[in-house]
Design brief:
The structure holds two protein chains of two kinds.
Chain A lengths: L5 H21 L5 H5 L2 H34 L5 H13 L2 H12 L6 H6 L8 H27 L2 H8 L4 H12 L1 H17 L2 H6 L10 H11 L1 H24 L4
Chain B lengths: L3 H19 L8 E8 L3 H14 L3 E8 L1 H9 L6 E3 L3 H6 L8 E12 L20 E4 L4 H13 L7 E3 L2 H9 L5 E5 H7 L4 E3 L8 E8 L6 H12 L1 H9 L6
Parallel strand pairs in B: 1-2, 1-3, 5-6, 5-7
Antiparallel strand pairs in B: 3-9, 4-7, 4-8, 4-9
Helix pairs in contact in B: 8-9
Classes of the chains: A mainly alpha, B alpha/beta.
Organism (chain B): Nocardioides panzhihuensis
Pfam families (chain B): SBP_bac_11 (PF13531)
Protein name (chain B): Molybdate transport system substrate-binding protein
Chain lengths: 253, 250
């Protein structure tokens, strides 16, 4: 490596660390405990934790089969499906929110039929979970598909020759083999769920206790109560750091 | 990777990009005026900015619209605004000395916006409290939300909204998409939205009136030019644009 790379690399590192330091420095340590434990902050935190957990579970239920199909089979148009599955990763979240609104909204593609049977999704906690799942799913699929490809199919083949049925092989061989990848993928998906903002505010709205998650609270508070916004931001930063540490510990990052 | 020419090109490109950012002011006889205005002024102030540019050749007016409290925060953080028009006196007051001479230029009242045809048959303010009605309001931090809360207090109607949005535009978006049965916005928003919403006026609307002040800001690059814009808004021409859009006199 040429030695001069150190210089731009240091700038890059500072570029990431400095803003984080700035937010930590803005926190008033004396008022931090009361700000973070205020009823509205706890309500938002609790809602965020519940929705992000539900979103992660949905990501696992939907993402594991998708990643397995993408890693273990080949069919026409598979490349296209793979690219499309990754789309929410690069799509601006507000666009994802609009897309969800036109799908599940009262006049949306599916929403119209759902409305007829009395199910309305926008403005509900379910809408938050759907928005989070939509944007977080690719994280899980990428991590897991990578892990599945790396682990190969040898053990699965052996298990099959010993008479194990496909479901048994999948449950007893494939999944344990890729457990670290699944874990880090789930943790990343959880973090993405927790941080979701644009799709939520566009699709789910903003109501304390129902759809107003931590990022929405931060956005709302930043004008009238910057100290509280900074305190909540710090909580999210700490959670994010913990998540990265956890995911790195579980390999595959 | 080749070393020397590569980094040279990168540095040159970076310098060019940075230089481009810095020299956006243009030639000497071209002047810029930046106007921050409440989201409910989007249509009227866009029109007034065009008029102003016609009357002052060489002047380019840049407008930024948003929730008033949002704009106040941006101005306090040093956003390069020359003129600020707020949707209520409270937010203008937050600027203190930063606003040199606030003058009231318009007034606005609340109205109910419903999706075209008013499918939920909302007929008055008290209908917004009906169980099952999906009502969207502004959050209390922004003027339209503050006005909504005030209206609830004065009428004794307790709305249980499905969402508290950041600005009137966000409320309207939820109504025009059909996902909300009704949204509480300004009467001018209903006028501006045209056919995409059906407005419902209610008799209690006069009980809460938002007064809109406008002011040249302390940090204005060209205070004279900024004052000229304020004068246009207060002039007969400016007032006609505003009343045509549904605003009333302050």
């Amino acid at each position: 490596m040429p030695r001069w790379l150190w210089f731009p690399a240091a700038i890059a590192a500072a570029f990431i660390i400095l803003p984080l330091a700035a937010i930590v420095l803005r926190v008033d340590p004396t008022s931090l405990p009361s700000l973070v434990t205020s009823p509205s902050a706890l309500e938002a935190l609790w809602l965020s934790l519940r929705t992000a957990t539900a979103g992660t579970v949905l990501c696992i239920l939907l993402g594991v089969p998708l990643a397995t199909v993408l890693a273990r089979t080949s069919f026409r148009g598979q490349g296209l499906i793979r690219s499309l599955a990754l789309l929410p990763l690069v799509l601006p979240p507000v666009v994802s929110g609009l897309a969800l609104l036109y799908t599940f909204g009262r006049r949306g593609l599916l929403g119209q039929s759902l409305d007829l049977v009395g199910i309305q999704i926008p403005f509900t906690t379910l809408a938050v979970v759907i928005a989070q799942t939509f944007v977080a799913l690719p994280f899980l699929v990428i991590s897991l598909e990578g892990a599945l490809r790396t682990s190969g199919t040898r053990y699965e083949a052996v298990a099959a020759t010993l008479g194990a049925r496909p479901t048994t092989v999948f449950r007893r061989v494939t999944l344990p083999l890729v457990a670290p990848g699944l874990l880090s993928g789930s943790v990343l998906a959880f973090a993405r769920c927790l941080g979701e903002f644009g799709a939520t505010i566009t699709f789910a709205g903003n109501l304390p206790g129902v759809t107003s998650t931590m990022p929405l609270q931060v956005y709302l508070l930043r004008v009238d109560d910057p100290d509280a916004a900074v305190a909540l931001s710090l909580v999210l930063v700490v959670v994010a750091i913990a998540v990265i540490g956890f995911a790195r510990h579980g390999r595959a990052l | 990777m080749t070393s020397k020419p590569g980094i040279g090109a990168v540095v040159t490109a970076a310098v060019l990009v940075l230089a481009g950012c810095g020299s956006a002011t243009g030639q000497a006889d071209e002047r810029d005026l930046t106007v921050f205005a409440a989201a409910s002024l989007t249509d009227t102030f866009t029109e007034l900015a065009e008029k102003f540019e016609k009357e002052h050749p060489g002047v380019k007016v840049t407008t930024s619209f948003g929730g008033s409290s949002d704009l106040v925060a941006q101005i306090e953080d040093g956003a390069p605004a020359d003129v600020f028009a707020s949707a209520d006196t409270k937010n203008m007051g937050k600027l203190g000395d930063l606003a040199t001479d606030p003058r009231d230029f318009a007034a606005n009242t609340l109205a109910i916006a419903t999706p075209p045809g008013n499918p939920a048959k909302i007929s008055g303010f008290q209908d917004l409290a009906e169980p099952g009605a999906k009502v969207v309001v502004c959050t209390i931090e922004v003027p339209c939300g503050n006005a909504a809360a005030e209206m609830e207090k004065r009428t004794g109607v307790d709305i249980d909204p499905v969402s508290e949005e950041q600005s009137v535009s966000d409320v309207l978006a939820k109504v025009t998409s059909g996902d909300a049965d009704a949204g509480l916005v300004y009467v001018t928003d209903v006028t501006a939205a045209g056919d995409s919403v059906t407005g419902v006026e209610f008799e209690e609307s006069g009980r809460v009136v938002n007064t809109y002040p406008i002011s040249v800001l302390d940090g204005a690059d060209d205070a004279e030019l900024a004052q000229a814009f304020v004068d246009l808004v207060l002039s007969e021409t400016g007032q006609k644009v505003l009343t045509d859009a549904g605003f009333s006199q302050p």
